[in-house]
# Entry
Amino acid sequence: MKYEVVIGLEVHVEMATETKIFCGCKNAFGSAPNTNVCPVCLSMPGTLPVLNEQAVEFGVRAGMSLNCHIPNYSKMDRKGYYYPDLAKAYQISQFDLPLCGKGEVEIEADGEKHTIGVTRIHIEEDAGKLNHQGAESLVDYNRGGVPLMEIVTEPDFRNAAQVRAFLDLVKANMEYMGVSDCKMEEGSLRCDINISIRPEGSTALGTRTELKNINSFSAAVRAIEYEFKRHIEVVEDGGKIIQETRRWDDAKGRTYSMRDKEEAHDYRYFPDPDLVPIYLSDERIEEIRQSLPELPMAKKQRYVAEYGIPEYDAGVLTMSKHTAKLFEECVAIYNEPKAVSNYIMVELARLLNENNMEPCDIPVTAKGLTDVLKLVNDGVVNSSVGRQVFEEMFKTGKDPAAIVEEKGLKQIDDTDEILALVRQIIAENPKPVADYKGGNAKAMTFFVGRVMKATKGKANPQTVNELVRTELEK
# Structure
């Protein structure tokens, strides 16, 4: 029997407000434990929360980016549960009247477009963090009270690629709007994955498991693929899927059971009596809408129309506001969009990956990148050497022209010099010459490679190819 996977997400995004959601403590990652705290976020008796207006605006912005309905009224609720990192033994969250209602967004995965429904977006306070040390656990309340939004989707995903595409879009939207830095390694973006299977063609939902706190996109993909396979094996072996919460172990590439999950938690929600309802006038909602920047999907479409680059290129460039900014700055200096796009997508992406860097850490300026392209276009260096110059500039920040001069990388265009070298190499290698004359045209690449190696890649490739062909034909 063939099965299909059914997936829904709960994406948690920490908002990049200056202060926490209900107090004036600094919202900052990496501070010494329990230094960004006060009586409010430590839940001391007699303290009162005050809602951070910027957190509300950020939540609305996020909803608008996912085409959610923004109601005029919402409210904050108390969600009762006990855990050591939750000082009040309840979390201030939202229940039946969230900040953002239903929405939907179009994604593209595996060359096909899909519509993903958004159930709701609500805002809440984050809990503290437990630091486990042997048999003891210490609580750091710096994260307690950090503004958090939860994006809940419909079970509309049918494979891991669609989940990855949605997470990429959410991350890009949040970064463009300044809502979150989305640094998954710091916990700014994390997600829970609800997954079940059913026979292909069925519309009934199967028993689901929940994968908690997935903290990288690659982990999300691997966890889904593993859990899909596990569900099928359990069912085909005559077993039943248990509704439970599972933990993903990225190092071992598998999930482990954490706890059984009841049909419904009794969180005993009720309106928080210390916080007034949130009212957003139509005028305020429109004001926030007008303040939105150009978002990735719109920018992608504009790039295709304005710069004439392929849709794929436009999608890659606009997935980060930092690469999009670099691209636009480069094209303003050097109006060759495709050449600029290629360097950002291939050379820059490779170096960022090799150095474990994010687009926000790009050390290359638009002037530096376009100077490299001009050196190649003007024939000062060939394309291979141009890539070497770019890599050196990436690492040192030096001016491309200075790198060329310092390392003696100028392209050799002297035909007589190249011809002498070609003749010498042909004379020293009679077997490849015989192979070529015997009909093996690929033997020519041997001589071209030898000439380029002898000149340390500086010879003009076009000139080398022409001279090698001419000499071999004699």
User: Anything to note?
Assistant: The mean pLDDT is 91.
